[in-house]
Write a structure and sequence with these properties.
By secondary structure, this protein is of the alpha+beta class. It is 45% helix and 13% strand.
């Protein structure tokens, strides 16, 4: 048997998975349309009842020319790091916005306490006068 080229081997992999996913979706009752040699499309309905399309594309990446081959593990790790950076940036923006509106945690508490007038008496002063009480701190 003649040895297959890398491109032919990649095509075999792509078709095996494309056909497997297509068959699985059809067995689940989905309408699956082949729209390209490496793409299938499914009609779907969104939460507001509108018809949309879901397109699944299959490819076997080869990596950069003259460079290292594609590394899915590194790509997944990079993706997770990017998600974490975006989440941190969004949290920072949210904190800045809250601070600008005077709602930033410690800053808001400081602002509230600073607005109070100091006093040696309040509505609880003398409440336990003449009673036995114990103070417990954990």
């Amino acid at each position: 048997m003649a040895k297959l080229t890398r491109k032919q081997l990649d095509e075999e992999i792509k078709l095996r998975f494309l056909e497997g996913v297509k068959e699985h979706l059809e067995n689940c009752g989905e309408e699956v349309l082949m729209v390209k040699s490496n793409e299938i499309a499914l009609p779907v309905v969104d939460s507001e009842g509108e018809e949309r399309w879901l397109v699944l594309t299959f490819k076997v990446p080869t990596g950069e020319r003259g460079g290292d081959g594609y590394d899915g593990y590194s790509m997944a790790e990079d993706y997770q790091m990017n998600l974490a950076k975006k989440a941190a940036k969004a949290a920072e923006k949210e904190a800045e916005a809250a601070k600008a509106q005077g709602q930033g945690g410690a800053a808001a508490l400081h602002q509230y306490v600073a607005s109070l007038a100091p006093s040696r008496q309040n509505e609880y002063t003398g409440m336990f006068k003449g009673k036995k009480s114990a103070f417990v701190s954990l």
